[in-house]
Amino acid sequence: MNPGSVAVVVAEDIGVPSWDLYELSIPCTVFGKPQPDLADPWYDLRLCSTGEPEQDSSAARAGAGAGAGLSMRTRYGLDDLAGADTVIVPSVPDACVEDGRPLPPALITALRHAYDAGARMVSLCTGAFALAEAGLLDGRRATAHWMHTAQLAERYPKVEVDDSVLYVDDGDVLTSAGLTAGLDLCLHLVRRDLGAHVANQLARRMVVPAHRPGGQAQFIDLSVPTTDDGSLGPVLDWARRHLDQPLTVEDLAQRAAMSPRTLHRRLQAATGTTPLQWLLNQRLGRAQNLLESTDLPIEKIGELSGLGTANNLRHHFLKQIGVSPSNYRRAFPRTMPDSEPHPSLPENREGAGEGRRRTDRGASDTPVTPRATASDN
């Protein structure tokens, strides 16, 4: 199935600070570059300006010069938001956050119309202020960059602001923290739409972590002293290759040549999650990959992912992802050739290459809407 169109709001008429280009570039990179070997068709990306389509050059130069900002022109305008399947507001100008400068009324109206038309609404960083102004976050849990969450909560008391998470998936409305957390959310959308395999392969091409759950902490404790034992990377890579085995925190600590307490402290500082929650997240990711790309029975997938029995697999899927393994499999029908070895299987885990595949969203009685959950303490 076509993953649909993605409309990204570009605040052209009120200037785009150069430091906000990062949030703008994230959806352009994730959704704008076709990936025909992963999914065909890919997303249809549209950049929709808040300004007039034909703005005179003097006004454009004035917008570009103010505060080292940039002025951009696009082929699409705010009227095009209502026809999109997904609408993303990357950020809003600092003046609208810090100084209370009003957001363009036309933008707020267009966001409401897009939501009423059935679009999935997404904000990155301070883009949450635009969704909140449109009333789309009322009664919902939401987040933004932790430096601005207090202002968001004060200005919009009907919003349940969570300043500790990377992103919040509330089904048809999703919000993220700033900078790299926006990339996490965009990859999460690909994971929802096209499956874990496609999202993982796209992340690999972008040289970023394949999946950071939304409940992971926004920032880490940099006061934790460094040690001489090097990065946690080798032990975490080893654990990923042995998820089918009954790993414990003690096993990981022994492999890393450190005490369980030190491992817990360092992993918490590096990822914002505990060793047990990290293992659970990896096992769930393995199970998703196997459900998408093999016909193995649920019992076998539970075994290979290290989640144990089929009942235990169902329990964690329902709690963490929001659907049963069977419904997840129906939503992402297998398309990897039978003759192609799967990299998640134990016999292929020591470096087997991952092959090409295409994934289409299939019909399912239960929509696949993974939930972002807080990490265990």
From TrEMBL:
Signal peptide: none annotated. Keywords: DNA-binding, Transcription, Transcription regulation. This is Helix-turn-helix domain-containing protein. The keyword DNA-binding applies. It comes from Streptomyces nigrescens. InterPro entries: Class_I_gatase-like, DJ-1/PfpI, Homeodomain-like_sf, HTH_AraC, HTH_AraC-typ_CS, INH-QAR. Residues 337-363 have a biased composition (Basic and acidic residues). Residues 233-331 form the HTH araC/xylS-type domain. It holds the Pfam family DJ-1_PfpI.
